Amino acid sequence: MRYKNIVKAKFISRPNRFIAQVDIDGQETTVHVKNTGRCRELLLPGNTVYLEKADNPARKTLYDLVVVEAEVGLVNIDSQAPNAVGKEWLSKQDYDVVIPEYKYGNSRIDFYMERGKDKFLMEVKGCTLIRDGIGYFPDAPTERGVKHLRELTAAVALGYKAMIAFVIQVEGVSEVRPNIDTHPEFGAALEEAKAAGVEVLFLRCKVTENELVIV
Hints:
By secondary structure, this protein is α+β, with helices and mostly antiparallel strands. About 20% of the residues lie in helices and about 45% in strands. It has a 6-stranded mixed sheet. Strand 1 (about 5-15) and strand 2 form a beta hairpin.
């Protein structure tokens, strides 16, 4: 996926989960942060960030903060990007059917696929938290993530082939581990899912200031 109208800025502060203050050519500007996670190790004062200018000039915040230049490299923090690139990636695989936002049980699973007689469910998670070259998920507690893992675990018993795909939104990282310090329940649910036969995929990406592509 590619962004349009990318603007370079300097990060100043993040008053709340949804907005940040940045410096664009010497002018302090309020922008929307497309990630409600903590991103504490990324959104540091003085870090270079990349913003996508909105098409709608009447919008309250004219820019979306989508990429951060951090110690680990360029990190895409757009929480909508993993599903977008996941859809692009799935379209290049040999599935007969790919349906996004699939209603299953008490959840909406990111993707439902078919190949011949086989039925697949795939949940996508974006990973932006990197420590010592290893990705960790989540960076904030996610009851929704635990719920999805349990839905996938139950689906395997019903004959589905289930997957959880971690889209790694920074280059040079090939593995994601559960962040049990932040959310031990997610780690336990992931282990249960793997034991039940849920496949874990680590999807590495090419990351630039205006592009995210699964490689």
